[in-house]
Amino acid sequence: MKKLIFFIVLLPLISLMSCHEKGLLQPPFTYIMSPEDGDTLHTPWPTFYFKSLDGADGYHLQVDDTTTFKTPIRENTQIQDTFYQIRDSLRDGKYYWRVRSREGGLYGQWSEVRNFYILTNPYAVTGYTNVIGYARDVWVEGNMAYVAASEGGISIFDVADPDAPLFVSRWDDTLKQYVARSLFKEEGSSYLYLADDDGGLEMLNVAEVDSIYFLFNSWNRNCEDVWGTKLNDTLFLFVADRDDGLYSFREGPNYLVELSHISTEAELYGVYVKDTLAYLAVGELGLEIVDISDPLHMTPVATLPLVGRARDVKVMGDLAFVASSTEGLHIISVSDPSSPVLLATIDLSGYSMKVAAADSVVFVACGSGGLRIVDVSDPSEPKLIGHVDTGYSYGVFIKGDYIYVASREGLYTVRRIF
Fold first, then answer.
1. DSSP β-bridge partners for residue 410
2. CATH superfamily entry for domain 25-118
């Protein structure tokens, strides 16, 4: 009787050992290590890690955007190591993954299912407000954001909390205001300057932001852009007149004095001043550099032909950045202003309208392409590092950690989130 009981107990163990020797026993559960549940990964090519199992001769991994795994979006049945990196990039979003071992042709149990997030765009919209009219440009000083909004005039918002802009006031002088395009404000000044298309260059008093009033305007008819700089403690304004070229003005108390004019060979859309040089975005011509050390006698320095239609220009260090409509962004060395050199061009989706730059990063308002962010730490090899949907975007301004975008849909605030 004892022998019979011993045989009955031993028989299942013998069967299990026999099955294992023949490769028929299902391999055990596989333990996964990384990414952990809920992890956020800032790469479209994540690497998955799991624990090795004695006797396993391979692993099977699945990634899907649902927990059913009926049609995995990424799958590999021939993994030989205990880690695996996705070769085909994943889009930003939420994903699930699991893995199982293989031994002698048999697959083990699936591991637990874990979820993770892919977030490759380091920038995101953090604030928004509606604007009356199409927002074409924005200028920020202190806690105030001034928005030029085409036929909507100028709106002012309190951005003490940039994530929640608050409307303060609006100026819309229908007798003088036509199409508000671009803004300039000297820090600490009571004056705000508006490039107002057929309304010319307008001078406004914004000392009391809830009570803006008009002071003066020039006769220029196709005013596209304006920039100012101080020379010998006097503020001078330089105005891009689309059809007539570059004009210079001297600021007076509550008025402006026109000084001189220089023609351009194509339509002039943008102007930026650094030190004693004005950098011009000259439509189908490209980049033009002008000496404005004597605003009464401005003199051309150099011209650099560029493909596309140059719409705006900014300078950071020895580099000039030109937003060039359908051709994207041109990066130019201006270390020798008399001989500018094109270093690289990066194609950007949409229509490049305005540009701003800080800390080796360039932000481009790209019309229907929203906001595009380009790393220019190596100016000869620019890299697109981010894209933010900010509607049909016209203007961009950097203030501290925030990027302000003037869009047909309103005013957006954007910042880096990782």
1. 407
2. Immunoglobulins (2.60.40.10)
Alpha-carbon span 42 to 313, nearest angstrom: 31
Q: CA-to-CA distance for 35 and 27, rounded, in angstroms?
A: 23
Integer CA distances (angstroms), 229 to 70, 88, 212, 295, in order: 64, 50, 23, 11
How confident is the model over 133-192, as pLDDT tens digits?
999 999 999 999 999 999 999 999 999 999 999 999 999 865 455 789 999 999 999 999
What is the pTM (predicted TM-score) of this model?
Answer: 0.84
Nearest residue to 221 (alpha-carbon basis) of 249, 255, 179, 271: 179
Q: Are 132 and 152 in contact (CB under 8 A)?
A: yes
Per residue in 194-209, pLDDT tens? 999 888 899 999 999 9
Domain positions in the chain are 25-118, 123-416
Distance CA 281, CA 293 (A): 19
Q: What is the CATH number of domain 123-416?
A: 2.130.10.10
**DSSP string of 213-251, one letter each residue:** EEEEE---SSEEEEEEEEETTEEEEEEEETTTEEEEEEE
Helix (H, G, I), strand (E, B) or coil at 3: helix
